[in-house]
Design a protein that fits this description.
The complex is a heterodimer. Chain A has 5 helices and 4 strands. Chain A is an alpha/beta fold. Chain A has one domain: ATPase, V1 complex, subunit F (Rossmann fold). The relative contact order of chain A is 0.18. Chain B is mostly helical. Chain B has 3 helices and 2 strands; from the N terminus they run ααββα. Chain B has a two-stranded antiparallel ribbon. Chain B is rod-shaped. The chains are: A alpha/beta, B mainly alpha. The interface between A and B is large, with 39 and 62 residues.
Chain lengths: 106, 217
């Protein structure tokens, strides 16, 4: 049985607590990284991470990319939208096809 | 012309011909696998792209509602309203097999079925903004889970496609040409040996005939 976790700054993620997801408010990048590692090892199948943090931890992201779980999903935070999720999809397309044929039309 | 380092013998030739047949068959199969993976992958990516855009839109809207709620209510009120949820979500992870790539399938289970249980607070001390924000988030949570599934699938498939493409290319542009060149080389070498043997026999026959003629005279 897996759980769903949310990592990010408090304001961006507090709403998820009401839905019954486990929230882990963090204030800095280092503790966000530690939390992610802990959750990944601790039975979390899906982990939502705000873009601010996820954008700065490519190593951690790459580590779990080839594993079935956890799935790490970028969510926009209150402050800004970085479009990381889109960028990740774009990267997958480039990796698989050789050039981007999905996102370059706009 | 790159050929393998082998002895030009008949046995080696038979072995190489067998290897070539296997390589050709493998190449065809892998190419089919790559094409099908690619088709599935593009479907998933297109779906993920649309879902990602919608979900981010909805999440931003929910965040805006939450910010409005935060501006009306004190932070302590919101904290106490949200941080003791009645609802609890657990996740079941199944797997789906796409062309021998295991893709996770997520299904979430709520502890209580009732929709109203996502409001973990009495309505006395909070405003309608908070209710809006929470129900918007609840709406988007299913999409988020689906998005997690699709993005994971896209990532895993992309890795597999890259590997398969490498294998196909290695077979097509290295292994198979090498086998073909080597087979040609051995065939030519054997033919040449054959011809030189024939000429030697003819030569010897001539010499023997000439010897007999001189003896008889």
């Amino acid at each position: 049985m897996y759980k769903i976790g949310v990592i990010g700054d408090y304001d961006s993620i507090c709403g998820f607590a009401a839905l019954g997801l486990d929230i882990f408010p963090t204030e800095d990048l280092e503790s966000a990284k530690q939390t992610l590692t802990r959750l990944a090892a601790g039975g979390y199948g899906v982990i939502y991470v705000t873009e601010q943090y996820l954008g700065k931890m490519p190593d951690e992201q790459a580590e779990y990319a080839e594993q079935q779980t956890p799935a790490i999903v970028a969510i926009p935070s209150v402050k800004e939208k970085l479009g990381l999720g889109r960028a990740a999809l774009k990267r997958y397309v480039e990796q698989a096809v050789g050039s981007d044929i999905i996102f370059n039309e706009e | 012309m790159a050929q393998l380092n082998v002895n030009p013998t008949r046995m080696e030739l038979t072995r190489l011909k067998k290897s070539l047949a296997v390589a050709m068959r493998g190449h065809k199969l892998l190419k089919d696998k790559r094409d099908e993976l690619m088709r599935q992958f593009l479907d998933i990516v297109r779906e993920a792209k649309v879902l990602r855009e919608n979900t981010e839109e909805k999440l931003s809207a929910a965040n805006r509602s939450l910010a409005v709620a935060g501006s009306v209510l004190q932070r302590e009120v919101i904290d106490s309203a949200l941080l003791l949820p009645k609802q609890e979500v657990t996740l079941e992870v199944g797997t789906k097999n796409i062309m021998s790539v295991d893709i996770p399938v997520f299904t979430s289970k709520l502890r209580s079925k009732s929709q109203g249980d996502m409001f973990s607070y009495g309505y006395a001390f909070t405003g309608g903004d908070l209710d809006d924000a929470i129900s918007e988030l609840a709406d988007v949570s299913a999409d988020l889970l689906k998005l997690a599934e699709l993005e994971k699938a896209a990532g895993l498939l992309a890795g597999e496609i890259e590997r398969t493409r490498r294998r196909v290319n290695a077979l097509e542009y290295v292994m198979i040409p090498n086998y073909q060149d080597t087979i040609r080389y051995i065939t030519m070498k054997l033919d040449e040996a054959d011809r030189s043997n024939t000429t030697r026999l003819m030569k010897i026959k001539d010499m023997m005939v000439a010897e007999r003629i001189t003896k008889e005279n």
